[in-house]
Design brief:
The structure holds 2 protein chains of 2 kinds.
Chain A lengths: L5 H21 L3 H26 L3 H31 L17
Chain B lengths: L1 H21 L3 H21 L3 H26 L12 H24 L15 H8 L4 H22 L5
The chains are: A mainly alpha, B mainly alpha.
Chain lengths: 106, 165
């Protein structure tokens, strides 16, 4: 009965999304922030797949596949960026990377 | 049986996600996230999405997270490199309280939704009908995604190149 109700999937997806959002706003470790973003992607994927089943349509599942491909592209760019930044700053603190958004104060 | 599986998988998905934002070491966080991703793959299987079940395990847990753990170990992160987060528990707690109204709003909107129906087709979610749909109706987004992957590939190479200046 639980497994056949859309509400239970929405509940799990919403909780996962909230945990991801919480990780982005409360943590400073750049790796944990990135993983929280991935977690939010996954929560949305779960919602898409549940709605695809609900509507008997493939659109939700295909969108989930496209999201996974986008996440893979994002992972490649993000990890290259982190390797470069870590070599320069020797830190994983998100506050140490302020130079990305403004001129660095010496 | 399916109810039990759903509760079991959702429990592990939420537990892994919670561990991911609480743990201090990035490697522990990444391993915790793998638990979440595998549990989500199981939930996809419960939703008749057998192709996505395989993609989730092979691409997400297999490739992206493995690359991620590889980079964390490659950087050889020491305790002194990690940010100090003395107020982490407080921030997580306060953030959790702030997010409660948002959750309630969305859940109330979905509360009256009817039950999921059983799929009409026998092969719903398998690779053949999904691929047929992907290469006809969704051909343009599919090609754009391949272009995006190419751009990301070139971007990663440009970033990781040694500075010549």
């Amino acid at each position: 009965m639980i497994v056949s109700s859309l509400f239970s999937y929405v509940l799990v997806a919403m909780l996962l999304f909230s945990i991801g959002l919480l990780g982005v706003i409360a943590r400073k470790n750049i790796f944990v922030i990135y993983m929280s973003i991935e977690l939010m992607f996954n929560a949305i994927n779960l919602l898409f797949v549940a709605l695809a089943q609900y509507r008997h349509s493939y659109d939700g599942q295909i969108f989930a596949v496209l999201i996974i491909a986008t996440a893979a592209a994002e992972a490649a760019v993000f990890l290259a960026l982190i390797v470069v930044l870590f070599r320069r700053k020797q830190s994983l603190d998100a506050d140490a990377f302020r130079a990305l958004s403004q001129k660095e104060a010496a | 049986m399916n109810d039990f599986l759903f509760i079991f998988l959702s429990f592990f998905a939420l537990l892994g996600a919670f561990g991911m934002i609480v743990l201090h070491q990035p490697v522990h966080s990444a391993l915790s996230l793998i638990v979440t991703l595998l549990a989500l793959a199981g939930l996809f299987a419960l939703l008749n999405a057998s192709f996505l079940f395989a993609v989730q395990i092979i691409v997400y847990a297999g490739a992206i997270l493995t690359l991620f753990i590889f980079i964390i170990m490659f950087l050889n992160v020491k305790e002194s490199n990690l940010p100090k987060e003395p107020n982490k528990t407080l921030y997580l707690f306060l953030g959790g309280i702030v997010l409660i109204p948002l959750n309630l709003l969305v859940l109330r909107a979905f509360y009256a939704m009817p039950l999921l129906r059983e799929p009409l087709a026998e092969d719903f979610g398998e690779i053949k009908p999904l691929g047929a749909e992907l290469f006809t109706k969704w051909l343009l987004p599919f090609e754009l995604i391949s272009l995006l992957l190419l751009v990301a590939l070139i971007g990663a190479v440009v970033f990781a190149r040694k500075d010549e200046v």
